Amino acid sequence: MHWAQWATFVGGAVAVVMPAVAAAPPPKPQYTPPLSGIPMPVEFQVLQDRYHEQILGSLGTQGCTNDSIAKRRSWDDLDDETRKDYIRAVHCLASKPALTDKSLAPGAVNRLDDFTYIHINQTNIIHQSGYLLPWHRLFMWQLEEALRNECGYKDYLPYWDNARFSADQSKSRVWDGNATTSFGGNGAPRTPPVEGGPDSTRLLLLPGLAVEFWLPMPLGTGGGCVTTGPFTNLTLTLGPVAKPVRDTANKYGYLPTRRCLARSFDPGYTGGASLTWANATSILSSGDIGQFRDGIERLWHRQSHTFIGGDGADPFSPTNDPAFYVLHAQIDRLWAIWQGQDLQTRTYAIAGNRTFFGIPLDYAPDVPPSLATIEDRMEMGLGGRPLAREGMPTTELGRCYIYV
Ligand SMILES: [Cu+2]
């Protein structure tokens, strides 16, 4: 694809003026500042441009091509019809029966719960490990396929461009609380109010590890049910899993616990100090996958979840919050841009242990830490057991998408 054509969909409404003289060099890609949020700085544009060039340059004339490649876009750049259609399709999955075996998870009621079940089941293997990126890439592709094939969604998985809204995340169309085109806003304040304010933390136990691991979680500014947007009546049944007490009766939250969707926005992760363009650019400048995976997990992924708080911040069942998928699409986008700086050496790069920080699991406490390889199998749920390397390219093995 010619840069001029490319820029028209990258920039949306951009009109690229063709040179008057046919022999003149093609115009440089035009980046149009968005209508909202902080424009993409030039350092990030350079990285994104190279990713686009590399991916498009790698495509052939069969399978995934320049014409067939899907564009995953910022939620803030979709039109309202597409946003409404996405939300409709999420509700559609929430209304279809779960496929997960009831004996595995009695609380799995609907198709969204199938995704939450396997995320809970794999949490200690797919976070702070080598599988973080390929597992979630496949996971979200499966969700995208379900939205499209089972519920008729026409577009592709959008992402929450949190860098663009680092000054105030609530200004993003993801969080503006609109009844049909957003994911809703903050949760209601806790009643009675907690001591210590939004910055104080409580410790949550992560079950399943051979050591006691308590995760500090800020209390945030909400904590109650989401009161705006299209998910105010969403009923959750799986989770919560990370709790302030040891819950031996419902260790992984597989038993039904009917409740609303809770959020607790954390002011510590909005207001310009984190989730910024500068931090994203810095993470993308990582020279190897070990540095990149550590950076994105420690400096981006965690902050994104903690900003949302509530159900979306439970490390096991954050998928209960439909915003999980736009959050992780942004993680996937940053990985794709990193890979796209050098597809040859970076597409299949992997670094990390086979479990959460290499900690043995409680059912196998004597297994020493070992390193993940791209030939390892990953559990995707409903019988899917692909190799890690099968979760790495974005334009092969049935996948065909690019982030714009
Ligand atoms: Cu996850």
UniProtKB/TrEMBL annotation:
SUPFAM superfamilies: Di-copper centre-containing domain
Domain of life where this protein originates: Eukaryota
InterPro entries assigned: Di-copper_centre_dom_sf (IPR008922), Tyrosinase/Hemocyanin (IPR050316), Tyrosinase_Cu-bd (IPR002227)
Cross-referenced PROSITE patterns: TYROSINASE_2 (PS00498)
Keyword Metal-binding attached: yes
Residue span, Tyrosinase copper-binding domain: 321-332
Signal sequence, start to end: 1-23
Keywords: Metal-binding, Oxidoreductase, Signal
Pfam families on file: Tyrosinase (PF00264)
Keyword Metal-binding attributed: yes
PANTHER family: N-ACETYL-6-HYDROXYTRYPTOPHAN OXIDASE IVOB-RELATED, TYROSINASE FAMILY MEMBER
Protein name: Tyrosinase
Species the sequence originates in: Apiospora phragmitis
Top-level taxonomy: Eukaryota, Fungi, Dikarya, Ascomycota, Pezizomycotina
